[in-house]
Specification:
α1 (2-25) packs antiparallel against α2. The protein has helices at residues 2-25, 28-52. By secondary structure, it is an all-alpha fold. This is DUF2759 domain-containing protein. Pfam families: DUF2759.
């Protein structure tokens, strides 16, 4: 699960960068999809880290 959170965190960071680029290019559909990706993957990453802790605890 630890490596998965790193990958999802990178996707979140790239979605933020893509959102800013789409704003600069005035691309409404790009902003919509990039912000949606940021919201979904960012929420999942943050809530998983809060729920399991970082580094994740082994049961």
């Amino acid at each position: 699960m630890n490596l998965l959170m790193v990958i999802f965190g990178l996707v979140t960071v790239l979605a933020v960068i893509g959102t800013f680029q789409a704003f600069k290019e005035k691309n409404v559909l790009g902003v919509l999809f990039n912000f949606g990706t940021f919201a979904v993957f960012g929420f999942f990453t943050v809530m998983t880290i809060l729920n399991q802790g970082f580094p994740p605890s082994l049961h």
